[in-house]
Amino acid sequence: MGHTSARVDGATLMAATNVAGPVTVGTPAWFAWLADATSFTFTSPSGSFMARKERRTRGGGYWQAYRTAHGTLHKAYLGKLENLTFARLEQTAVTLATAAKPAGPPPPPPA
Questions:
Q1: Which of 4-8, 56-60, 91-95 has the lowest mean pLDDT?
Q2: Does the first or last residue of the chain, that is N or C, have fewer Cβ atoms within 10 Å of its Cβ?
Q3: What is the pLDDT of residue 103?
Q4: What is the pTM of this model?
Q5: Cα–Cα distance between 25 and 58 in angstroms, integer?
Q6: Distances from the Cα of 28 to the Cαs of 31, 47, 73, 111, in angstroms?
Q7: What angle do CA 21, 40, 37 make, to 5 degrees?
Q8: Arithmetic mean of pLDDT, 73-102
Q9: Are 65 and 51 in contact (CB under 8 A)?
Q10: Is 50 exposed, middle or buried (0-12, 13-18, 19+ CB in 10 A)?
């Protein structure tokens, strides 16, 4: 059931078990794969994150994105399976990359 080694490069699912060849994000094959997947990494020029399926007692499963930068874990809600389009993954990568940027330089010491 778990697909912990799955990797999505841009709009293409790569290196996933039980998948013959690359799969384009947003296609019926993508959503079929997500139905059984438990996690994957997403990488694009906009940023990267680890996505993990989580469960609630009410409402079923949903996806969360995680990225650690500078010792801080940043988290973003991806949504339910049907919301995991390429646009949503890219938007989340930008959001997490922005949140992970270090603050500007420290203020100068008082004179």
A1: 56-60
A2: C
A3: 60
A4: 0.81
A5: 27
A6: 5, 25, 32, 63
A7: 75
A8: 90
A9: yes
A10: middle
Tokens 């709009």 sit on residue: 11
The burial class, CB within 10 Å (0-12 / 13-18 / 19+), for 53 is buried
Cα separation, 92 vs 61, in Å, equals: 18
Question: How far apart (Å, rounded) are the C-alpha atoms in residues 68 and 97?
Answer: 10
One-letter amino acid at 5 equals S
Give dist(CA 45, CA 97) in Å, integer: 10
The string of pLDDT tens digits covering residues 13-69 is: 987 776 777 899 999 999 999 988 899 999 999 899 999 999 877 767 899 999 998
Nearest to 30 by CA among 85, 97, 94, 72: 85
Task: At 62, list the tokens.
Answer: 């949903």
**Whose structure tokens read 């694009």?**
44
Q: Which residues contact 90 (CB under 8 A, 6 or more apart)?
A: 44, 46
